[in-house]
Amino acid sequence: MTSNPPRSRGWVIGRLAGAPVIVTPSWFLAAVVLTLVFAPSVRSRVPSLSNAGVVVVAFAFVLLLFVSVLCHEAAHAYVARAHGHRVTELAMTLWGGHTAYTGTQKRPLDGALVAVVGPVANLVLAAGFWLAYRATPGETVPALLLYAAFYSNAFVGAFNLLPGLPLDGGQILEAIVWRLTGSRTKGTVAAGWIGRVVAIGVLAFVLLLPLVVGGAISYTQIVWAAIIGAFLWSGAGEAIKAGRRQVIVDELSAGPLGGRAVTVLTGTSVAEAVRAVTGVPDAAVVVVDTWGRPLGWVDPAAASAVPPDAATATVVDAVVVPFPPGSAVEVTMSGTDLLEHLAATSAGARIVPLTQGGRAVGVLDVARVAAALRGPTR
Questions:
Q1: DSSP designation for 50
Q2: Residue 378 has pLDDT above 50, yes or no
Q3: pLDDT tens track for 313-341
Q4: Selection from 87, 102, 112 nearest residue 184 by Cα
Q5: Residues 6 or more apart from 171 whose CB is under 8 A from it?
Q6: Which of 50, 276, 300, 305, by CA, is between 20 and 30 Å from 28?
Q7: Model confidence pTM above 0.85
């Protein structure tokens, strides 16, 4: 489950929660691998099947797993939408799947609810498959598929509840720490570090369990544990980086980042505008209406290109760069709200107005905000 990543490449097979369901190319690789992995179990449990039959049954298990993952992601998607997010995609991938949606969580409870419903969906499916398996007599193909579906859903549900990012349990832990400390950033970093512990724990469990029970360590188990551990370690590391980036975002404030401005009324001559800004270094000339609302800023190059003998007769509106509609930034705006506002309204503009109570009090250079977002250089 992620928030607002780039659109995945693949084939759209339907829509859920108003968003496309995408099967990515990597899912087909996973389907082939899982079919080959499950095939020996099918052959040992149902030896009467032909080679083709073994493959068909193994692939049927993969399809059941696909439906289970889709239910998991659909649960995320519908709860996210119920909490005001716009779901952009549900993608089936090499690692199972993910749900993408726009916006940020406003409350810890919202994040916890969106996260927990995915594993809960798998555990409910596991219970249903277990009851169906118990009601199916004999060592038959349906019984084998029902047991495999029960086991895989129980494993996916329980595994995703482990308390470390990028797992759903990590997002629940993030919400708990957020609720206790009042800082989502602290929650993200804490859940990221616990995610690294979980990654090491997965590998250690696979290596040590056979030694404890007196069994042999299989090469396949080591490979799978290493792959899953590496995936978890990478996801946890990205979460820690995201938490640290969020610290920078939280410290962004429009007022301190803003630049000075000299306001002139629409219809003012270029000559008067030049005189108004003289002696005010690094100030932009902002053209306002009679209510003080910003209309645009004067391009210095365009203003200097006006011949001196025409500057008095030329109105400043002729050399103004209009502000995009709705792009005005209140001086008190900060953090994620500031970034979301700029992304939604700046429309590629370099300069947007700073306002207080609707009246222009300065300008904000979008490039300066981007530089502050990157943090100090080392």
A1: -
A2: no
A3: 999 999 999 999 999 999 999 998 899 89
A4: 112
A5: 1, 111, 112, 114, 115, 165, 191
A6: 50
A7: no
